[in-house]
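To close the section, here is one more complete example, presented without commentary so you can practise reading it yourself. The ligand is pantoate.
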Amino acid sequence: MQVLTTIEEFREAKDALKGTWGFVPTMGYLHAGHLSLVKRARAENDHVAVSIFVNPTQFGPNEDFAAYPRDLQRDLDLLQPHAVDLVFNPTPEVIYPPHFQTYVTVEEVTRHLEGAARPVHFRGVATVVTKLFNIVGAERAYFGQKDAQQTIVIKRLVADLALPIQIIVCPTLREPDGLAMSSRNTYLNAEQRKAAPVLYRALYAAKEAFDKGERSGKELRATMRRVIEAEPLASIDYVSAADPMTLQELPPEPSQPKAEEAVLLSMAVRIGQPRLIDNFLYENGQWLAGEFAG
Ligand code: PAF
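Output:
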């Protein structure tokens, strides 16, 4: 496993290895969810590249860029057993050199949910992901369903700009109590950690209501709210029951034809200070609610 820090070094190392490439972009502080993406990339490609880069442009001025957990040696130790060929670990100056002024903006689908709560976030994500795709030149890239809106934005970007890469979305990985794995879970103290599975319970309650026939967007959102409001440490940033294509909220009264039914249940909730996100997706007649790590 080679670790490269400049674009030139990375391209040279990649050119020496012929075959197909799977790419897993990350911000490091890896967990089992990231490793499940690496395993899938390993199974579907001749070679695997992972990037580790805490991207400053996707954090707002009052967000956690400085505090975001970083431990390169720990990440490399976790990647080592997975036969990763190349790790790209650039400095901010490599990605954003002096005079950098070109950004990628995805319009409509970034206006809702995380995009509404975090105004610069998706411009930063779309820009860095486009640049990383250009540097790495992989056939396939792997993302987690946990960041549902991010996967929608990236698929839109790839389709709109005809980027020659296939986007593969892999299930959210969950702790035994349902908490979705995230590098940001390290912010939770013991008491907050106990409260954090409330997101999973709220999503599950709305799923059960949907499965029993509830189709009102208003009722599905109210179901999630009720569960979260019963947890004293939790405060809601948003809860959403939206069309997964457009991310428009489902109206109070059902409007989708039965055959096309699809819903993205999602939320951002603060547990004390830490802000967590999670989602369940229903499409093609089935729920994508994540998998329990085993
Ligand atoms: O999902 C993440 O970790 C980041 O948003 C990504 C895709 C690596 C871009 O910085």
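Once you have examined the tokens, check your reading against these statements. Residues 71 and 151 are 25 Å apart (CA to CA). Residues 121-136 form the longest helix (16 residues).
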